[in-house]
C-alpha cells in the first residue's frame, strides 16, 4: 500500500517558501512534482537534496528541499511523488499540499 499524506499551507503573496521531505537517493527514489504547479499562483524556484550533517554514512537519509515562489493571492495545490524514475509509475509515497496564498 502506498503512503499518502495531505497538508495545508498558508503563505504570503510574493514570498518564497519551502517544503522539506525525508529522502534517500541511494535507494533510487527521489521527490518530484506529480503535476505541474499552477503558474498563475506558484513557480518552482529550486529542488535539491540536502545530505545529513556529518559524519554522513553511505545510505543515510537526508532531506529534499523544494522552494516555491507565491505569485498571487488565491488557493492552489502542490502534489509530489517519491518514485524511482525508471519504475513506470511505481511510487513509494505521495504528498498533497493545499496552499492558500494571502
Automatic annotation (TrEMBL):
Entry's Gene Ontology molecular function annotations: cysteine-type endopeptidase inhibitor activity
Domain of life: Bacteria
Keywords, ordered alphabetically: Protease inhibitor, Thiol protease inhibitor
Residues covered by the Proteinase inhibitor I42 chagasin domain: 11-96
InterPro entries hit by this protein: Chagasin-like_sf, Cys_protease_inhibitor_I42, Prot_inh_I42_chagasin
Protein name, as recorded: Proteinase inhibitor I42 chagasin domain-containing protein
Amino acid at each position: 500500500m502506498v503512503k499518502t499524506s495531505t497538508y495545508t499551507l498558508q503563505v504570503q503573496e510574493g514570498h518564497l517558501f519551502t517544503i522539506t521531505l525525508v529522502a534517500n537517493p541511494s535507494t533510487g527514489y527521489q521527490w518530484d512534482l506529480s503535476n505541474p504547479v499552477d503558474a498563475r499562483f506558484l513557480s518552482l524556484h529550486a529542488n535539491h537534496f540536502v545530505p545529513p550533517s556529518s559524519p554522513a554514512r553511505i545510505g543515510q537519509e537526508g532531506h529534499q528541499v523544494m522552494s516555491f515562489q507565491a505569485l498571487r493571492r488565491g488557493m492552489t495545490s502542490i502534489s509530489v511523488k517519491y518514485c524511482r524514475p525508471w519504475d513506470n509509475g511505481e511510487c513509494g509515497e505521495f504528498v498533497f499540499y493545499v496552499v492558500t496564498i494571502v
